[in-house]
Amino acid sequence: MDAHSPKPKILHVLSQRPSRTGSGVTLDSMVRCADNAGYPQIAVVGTPSDDHQPEVGELAASDVYPFVFGGDVPFDLPGMSDVMPYATRRWASLTDTEIDQYVLAWSRHLEEVIDRVQPDLIHSHHIWLLSSILKDVAAEIPVVTHCHATGLRQMELCPHLAQRVVAGCRRNDAFCVLHREHAQQLATILDLTPERIHTVAAGYREDLFHAQQRSQEMTPTVVFAGKFSQAKGLPWLLDAVDRLSSAVPQLKLHVAGSGSGAEADALRNRMASMSQVQMHGMLSQAELGALLRRCQVFVLPSMYEGLPLVLVEAVASGCHVVCTALPGVTRELQPALGTALCLVPLPAMRTIDQPDPTGLPQFVSELTTAIQRAIDRPLPELPAGAKQFTWPSVFQRVERIWSELLGKAPVSANDQAG
Question: For the chain, is the Cβ count within 10 Å smaller at the N or the C terminus?
């Protein structure tokens, strides 16, 4: 791809709402960076029936083509996680008929958009059903698929769909992963050669997450941002806050996020009954940055994650971070974030994101101790290693993949189908 030739047109594809989850933030950030680099872009995103015109970066409304759940298909949006910050269906609950409706409707929607805008490259998100049909509707267009780990998780939760996803997704030309363990998992699951998988990490917006004008004197404050679910470890964070309240009577836990379903409702009711907890609901990126600058410690006691970019956002905002020792965090973030990051061992696990109850008392004890120590420490400086996790740095790695694919003929879909 000649640096002086017109920039190729990029079609971004996400099956769920932009900016509301990690993959949505990634989409939004990639679009902003690519816009700054001069790429013409279009986005196709999933959205509920009450949001017919979702925003993606700074794209004009005419460049965003929503697929409306409750309209294009007669059911709610299936979320890539089983607990989402907005109303969704669980993939495991969809019938065979609904799966067929989903695939057919998305195929028609994509065909119409591709025929209209004629993209040079497609960048999709999630190793799941939508990414698996792209070569059916755009066999000759290079496809890059961004893995966010939740697709790999859904293969375990929905084994009846796994082979369909594998057979379809492995035809795509290149894959972005968040860390090296994902690269190894993806190579094994999709039977890919290593050169088709690229580790690009995750990023944060320096204009929103920074420690400027941050108060250095504050009462003990802890913050959690994420879905209201056991998979995010929220019940055991509440247990730890209960334990700490006697030793740290001024302790306040700020909770940003939401959730739907019985599990989320139970957690919401519990937090409403705790005087130490203040719930903020869903926050924009700018609002979350402002909240982080008012808090000392960010806690993510999650049972399963890819590479949670919110940890970098918290450190950039001047917080200490307490997190479970997830593989991606241990291998990719700990070397970069240094002493600003404190890891708590995961309890023994029953499934990929469900802990064995017998290990939870020790887990809560260790989590409580880690939070107490973080509260007692001076606020950290931004580690030099965090620079690699800015979105411009991530985008540079993604752009190299685009350039490689557009500088040569894409691999034939038939050749890859195996």
Answer: C
